[in-house]
Design goal:
With about 400 residues, the chain is of the alpha+beta class. Among the domains are: about 140 residues, no CATH class; about 100 residues, no CATH class. It is built from 10 helices and 20 strands. The strands form 6 sheets. Strands 1, 12, 13 and 20 form a 4-stranded antiparallel beta sheet that branches. It has a 4-stranded antiparallel beta sheet with strand order 2-9-6-7. Strand 15 and strand 16 form a beta hairpin. The radius of gyration is 23 Å and the shape is flat.
């Protein structure tokens, strides 16, 4: 009867739309800390929170600071996170120095400093830590977001139901996390080599949410593929913020559009949340009673995430909540200079991302109208589909020695 519209047995219909996991088959739920305080906005605060935790010698007081959950208490024993050298004994008797905080992504626009101790984190996803290095990229699918996000850092802070697709299954950029045979099929179809990074860039530019989940269309013509990967590369350059071997210098706006501090921000992390207002005529962002930044593009001011203005979320994370208790109330005494630099970088990122995402949306819509994609039927005929079950599981990776609970050796 020709083309079928129902899902085939392998979960992929014969039309041109493919589910994301037919392209990047291995994914895991996004890492989750389970408590706010191990994720700080600066390294010194992360260390100070650890010190305050251990300063509570009475078990009841230390337990209250930890904020226990079903997954973690003072007496939980777990293995070290891969690549880390933290203790594996019970937190009730821990007395060692703070683990060195690591920089992680926190949602699509921010970074935080995480205390990388497995005993503090409900679901850090060790399988991602095993493959995280300078060559790795993580594609993050948040079902509430319009587009996909990419980061070279371990991705925390994604919303419920989010999944993380590593680009590579092994450290060092080895073994692409792509359906076996896909790269060869695309290379043959286009008559030119196709690299894993090209596929990721195409996904960034064109993957869109549908009623069936996140889906992507692979084009039949090389000219369309080349144009789409170029657009996706622009989004990736902004999102990586200069991190990792796949990032060049952090993109900057031209001199006349680059935001600057026109009037100093006189803020305190222990003060009230500053009011924010936007002066559209002058493209100026007013922060509190004294701070002024300009030029700030309207797109940066209007950017929202999870129903809240991105800039408001950014300031809220850096000003102590009067209702905060325990270790979450440990914040810097003064406004660190690097936070102002981070704010200027965020304004640039929001501006560039909005501009480039708009071009990608227009391109994807035009491609949908054109048709002529590589669909499920073609990929089944080429032997790319169905995806082998092994490709949906993590590779057996043990690059470094990992200490298990209470000092045991980990075997994988």
């Amino acid at each position: 009867m020709g083309r079928v519209s129902d899902r085939a047995r392998d979960g992929v219909s014969d039309d041109d739309r493919l589910p994301l996991n037919a392209v990047l088959p291995w994914s895991v739920p996004a890492p989750r800390a389970g408590r706010d305080w191990p994720l700080a906005t600066d390294r010194a605060t992360a260390r100070a929170r650890w010190t305050a935790l251990l300063a509570a010698s009475e078990e009841g007081a230390r337990e209250a600071l930890l904020v226990p959950s079903r997954a973690r208490t003072l007496h939980t024993t777990v293995a070290q996170l891969p690549g880390q050298s933290t203790g594996t004994g019970r937190l009730a008797r821990e007395s060692g120095p703070a683990p060195e905080p690591v920089r992680v992504a926190f949602g699509p626009y921010e970074e935080r400093f995480l205390l990388p101790d497995h005993r503090l984190l409900d679901a850090p996803r060790p399988e991602l830590w095993r493959v995280a290095d300078a060559s790795q990229l993580f594609l993050v699918h948040d079902p509430r977001a319009t587009g996909l996000a990419v980061t070279a850092l371990l991705p925390f802070g994604a919303g419920p139901g989010s999944r993380v697709h590593p680009l590579f299954r092994r450290p060092g950029g080895r073994e692409p996390n792509l359906s076996p045979g896909l790269l060869a099929h695309l290379s043959d179809r286009y008559g030119r080599p196709v690299a894993p990074l090209d596929v990721l860039d195409w996904l960034l530019a064109t993957a869109r949410p549908t009623h069936r989940g996140r889906e992507v269309r692979l084009p039949g013509r090389y000219e369309e593929w080349a144009a789409g990967t170029a657009l996706g590369r622009g989004l990736r350059e902004v999102a990586l913020r200069g991190h990792g071997t796949h990032a060049g210098p952090r993109p900057r706006l031209p001199g006349g559009r680059r935001p600057w501090v026109r009037e100093a921000l006189e803020l305190s992390p222990r003060g009230a949340l500053p009011s924010l207002s936007y002066e559209a005529e002058d493209q100026a962002l007013r922060v509190g009673d004294t701070g002024l930044l300009a030029p700030v593009a309207p797109a940066a001011w209007e950017a929202h995430h999870e129903g809240e203005r991105v800039l408001a979320r950014w300031f809220r994370a850096r000003v102590s909540d009067p209702a905060a208790k325990g270790l979450a109330a440990v914040v810097p005494r003064a406004w660190p200079r690097e936070w102002t630099s981070d704010l200027l970088g965020l304004l640039t990122d929001l501006t560039l991302h909005a501009e480039r995402a708009a071009h990608c949306a227009e391109f994807a819509a035009a491609g949908e109208e054109e048709g002529h994609g590589i669909g499920g039927a073609a990929l089944r005929a080429a032997g790319v589909l169905p995806v082998l079950p092994a490709a949906r599981r993590p590779a057996t990776v043990l690059e470094t020695r990992e200490e298990g609970p209470e000092g045991q050796f980990v075997l994988l």
